[in-house]
């Protein structure tokens, strides 16, 4: 089974209430080859929500207690991001996910690039919190771009 970010399947769950539909991923859902997950909703957030970025590092640093996830207004939401990561990890185990395709750039789901924590649209190399947890536990996590390039 393939686990995919809900927004990539066309569900309007992104922080601003939009989606990031990827037609190849949507087709996998229709064929019952993939199921959707949104770590941020699983962590207790609703849609829409304030944008958040990792400050002081990347997803690994958040899991290790050395960085935080903070909303643009300054509210620390680290706990919710960690909770969402663990609920997503448990879901991946439950469905025996062989691969996880997550939305690039997100503080939860980014698998090669995340925003730098300054809320200026600048990205840095790094994993989001959920991606970091899944990779630590041996799961293969790729972005929608990598999916389209390699598997689509």
Descriptive overview:
The chain is α/β, with parallel strands linked by helices. It has one domain (2-150). 32% of the residues lie in helices and 19% in strands. It has helices at residues 23-30, 39-42, 59-63, 78-94, 129-136, 144-150; strands at 2-5, 34-37, 52-55, 68-71, 99-102, 113-115, 123-125, 141-143. The strands form three sheets. The chain has a four-stranded parallel beta sheet with strand order 2-1-5-8, sandwiched between helices. Strands 3-4 form a two-stranded antiparallel sheet. It has a two-stranded antiparallel sheet with strand order 6-7. Helix 4 crosses helix 5 (129-136). The longest helix is centred in the middle third of the chain and has 17 residues, at 78-94. It starts with a strand and ends with a helix. It comes from Metabacillus hrfriensis. This is DUF523 domain-containing protein.
Q: What is the topology, as strand order, of the major beta sheet?
A: 2-1-5-8
Percent of residues in helices comes to 25-40%
Q: Determine the strand fraction and express it as a percent band.
A: 15-25%
Contiguous low-pLDDT stretches (5 residues minimum) are none
Termini separation: 15 Å
Number of domains: 1
Q: What Rg do the Cα atoms give?
A: 14 Å
**Number of separate strands:** 8
Helix-strand string: EHEHEHEHEEEHEH
Shape: globular
Biggest beta sheet attributes? 4 strands, parallel
Mean pLDDT over the full residue set: 96
Tally of contiguous helical segments: 6
Structural class: alpha/beta
């Amino acid at each position: 089974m393939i686990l995919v970010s809900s927004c990539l399947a066309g569900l309007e769950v992104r922080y601003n209430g939009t989606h990031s539909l990827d037609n190849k991923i949507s087709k996998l859902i229709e064929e019952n080859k993939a199921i959707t997950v949104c770590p941020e909703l699983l962590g207790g957030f609703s849609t829409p929500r304030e944008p958040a970025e990792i400050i002081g590092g990347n997803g690994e640093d958040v899991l290790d207690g050395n960085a935080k996830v903070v909303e643009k207004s300054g509210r620390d939401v680290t706990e919710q991001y960690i909770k969402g990561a663990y609920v997503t990890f448990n879901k991946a185990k439950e469905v025996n996910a062989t691969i996880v395709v997550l939305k690039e750039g997100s503080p939860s789901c980014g698998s090669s690039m995340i925003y730098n924590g300054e809320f200026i649209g600048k990205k840095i190399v790094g994993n989001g919190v959920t991606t970091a947890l899944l990779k630590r536990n041996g799961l293969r996590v790729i972005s929608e771009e990598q999916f389209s390039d390699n598997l689509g």
